[in-house]
Amino acid sequence: SSRSVSAVAKVFSVQRSRLKFESGKNLIFLYEPGKQVASAVKIKNVSRSPVAFKFQTTAPKSCFMCPPNGVIMPNETIVAKVVKYVEVPEGPQQQPRKLKDKFRIVSLKVKEGVEYTPELFDEQKDLVAVERVLRVVFLDPQTASPAELEKQQKRLAEADAAQEARKKPQNDRSHKGGAVQGFVIDEWKERREKYLAKQQAE
Predict the structure, then answer these.
(1) Are the C-beta atoms of residues 176 and 70 closer than 8 Å to each other?
(2) What does the pLDDT profile of the chain (202 residues) look like in tens digits?
(3) DSSP-derived secondary structure letter, 120
(4) Is residue 201 helix, strand or coil?
(5) Structural domains present in the chain
(6) What is d(CA 58, CA 23) in angstroms, rounded to the nearest whole number?
(7) Spatial separation of the C-alpha atoms in residues 53 and 72, rounded to whole Å
(8) Residues 6 or more apart from 133 whose CB is under 8 A from it?
């Protein structure tokens, strides 16, 4: 029936990827307990329309993303940086290879000129697609090969350069609506400091 055909078409349109990721399905962090460590993910809009995206995480108290959300234009590539606080293990525990922490990146097709707002995804829930679920994987700096460490450093340098570019005034950008950095970093740092102070007090 026409209803079933339209349903299939809708499922296909939602499932088809709008974004391409070059980092696979893992977010790689150096294992340095008690420190903030970083990873990076490169995201490209492979669709013909602007695409809004946002990060979601199962560990909001220990992680932040930069940018956490935004709009990516057709054929535009962004490099997002993910920063995580590595908890100090209690007792003589071995380094965990993987954590339960996950990051999910969701997308939504938007019209030209539309800027990101938190309400975008709430207003069009049926059209939101889960693009990628990324798992946290640790890389031990003591045992990692020089090639692995160099690759990680290159990723982070690229993310830092992209972050600096986003700090430029909006009128210097070649188009409107690109992924922008919010105030999430300062808010996260303040929250983290209060959390650690509370733990020490207890």
Answers:
(1) no
(2) 545 444 444 444 445 689 999 877 888 999 998 899 999 999 999 999 999 999 999 888 888 888 999 999 999 999 999 999 988 877 666 655 567 788 999 999 999 988 898 888 988 888 999 999 999 889 888 888 899 899 888 888 888 888 788 777 554 544 444 554 333 444 445 555 665 666 566 5
(3) H
(4) helix
(5) 15-201 (2.60.40.10)
(6) 19
(7) 8
(8) 25, 102, 103, 104, 105
Whether a cis peptide bond, with omega within 30° of 0, leads into 67 is yes
How many Å apart are CA 179 and CA 186, to the nearest integer?
18
Report the side by side order of strands in the sheet with 26-30.
26-30, 129-139, 98-109, 51-57, 69-72
User: Residue 57 is inside which H or E element, if any?
Assistant: strand 51-57
